[in-house]
Amino acid sequence: MAQPDTNTFPPGIGMTTTRAPFIEDAKAHGRLYIQQPYELYSEENHEAWRSLYNRMLPQWERYANQHFMKGISNLCLDPNKVPRLEDVNQFLCALTGFRAKAVSGYVPAFQFFDCLRQRDFPTTITIRDGSKLDYLPEPDIFHDIAGHVPMHTDPAFADTLVRFGDCAHTAAEIARSISDKEERMRRLESVIKAMARFFWFTIEFGLMRDEGGKGLKAYGSGLLSSYGELAHSIDSPEVQRYPVQLEWVINQYFEIDHYQPLLFIVDSFDHLFSLVDQLEKWMREGKLDNVSPGEPGVGEEDLASFLNAPTA
Question: How many structural domains does the chain have?
Fold first, then answer.
C-alpha cells in the first residue's frame, strides 16, 4: 500500500507518541510498514531526543556493555536530533546486514520474529513527550534506535536475532502439524509465551558479564534506554540477578509497568546463541508446550500470525 503524501500534514506537526496524525492515518489505512516522514518532526521532538541522549550518555559509559558502546560509535548517531533511519541503515547494513524498518504500530509476533530472520528490525518512529522522559509503556524511536540498534552492529548478536527468528518458523511448522484444533491452540499459546519470556529476559532486559568476568554490564535494550532502570539493574540490592537458566526463563512471568526485580546473566553472545539453539530443540521436543501460566498474555492477533504464517 502506498505511502501517503506527507504534504497532507504540515511540516513540524509532530511525531509525538500518541499524538502523531501521520501514524493515525497509516493505521486507519492499514499501513504497517511505512517510510519515516522526517520533515514532520517538531522542534519539541528533537529536543526530547537531545534530552534523552545527553542524560543517557554517562549512564551508558558506566553500565553498558562494550559491544553497545562500540555500536553507538559505529552508528554515528547525532545526539542533537532524531535520527534519519536511512542514515542509521547506511552504517548498520554495512556491518551486519540489519536495517531499521519503520512501522506504524504493533507488529504481530510471527511477523516481528520473521523480520529479525530477514535482518529487518521493526522500528517505531514516534518519540515520547518531552515532559514524560522517564517511562513509556510502549516503544518509541529512542528505545528502538538508541536502545536496540547499537547491539545490531555486533555480528554475533545479530546472528543470534536471526537464529531467534528461525524459531518462529519452527513454531509455526509444529503448530500446523497438530490436527486437533484445541490442542493446537493450547500448545501454540504456550510456545509463544515461552518465546516472549525468552526475548524479554535476554534481548530486552539481559545482563552480561564484563570482559574480566567479575562485574556486570547491561545489553538489554529495555535497560539501555531507561535512565533510572539502567543503574538500578546493576547497583540496586533489590534486584535478584542469576546466571541464565532456560527452564527458569521460559516459566518466569514478567510485568512491564515497574522496574524488573529479577534479571538473568549470560556469559557472552556465543552463550546467548547456544541458548536459542536449545530453545528450538526444546520446542521440537515438546518442552515448551506446558510452560507456567501468567504474563505475558498471548492475543488472538499473535496466534493468528503463527497459524497463517507462510511455509518456509
Answer: 1
